[in-house]
Write a structure and sequence with these properties.
Elements (H helix, E strand, L loop, with lengths): L6 E4 L2 E4 L21 H4 L28 H15 L8
Length: 92
């Protein structure tokens, strides 16, 4: 499976933004993305939910109530991470 790594190319040098590839030598394909306008880089402003949802949920930055226990949330998070990393058993 191919893996992507994010980096910034600046005057002939590459600055890795995440983990480095675990290879000594490799063929690479480089995609140059257009520089994003400043508006896309800034943190988005807080948005309010639609009026018709008023009273249906309480949110204050964290989950206030959930039908799942902390252990169930942890298991779901771990399974999702395994799926993202390509573990086919995690999809069963």
């Amino acid at each position: 499976m191919l893996k992507s790594y994010e980096a910034i190319y600046d005057h002939g040098k590459i600055e890795w933004l995440s983990e480095l590839p675990d290879v000594e030598q490799a063929r690479v394909i480089i995609t140059v993305l257009p520089q994003q306008p400043r508006a896309y880089v800034e943190k988005p402003k807080h948005r309010r939910p639609p009026e018709k949802l008023k009273g249906s949920a309480r949110v204050s930055g964290e989950i206030v109530s959930s039908p799942f226990s902390a252990d169930e949330w942890e298991a779901m998070t771990e399974r999702t991470a395994r799926q993202i990393n390509g573990d086919s058993e995690a999809f069963k």
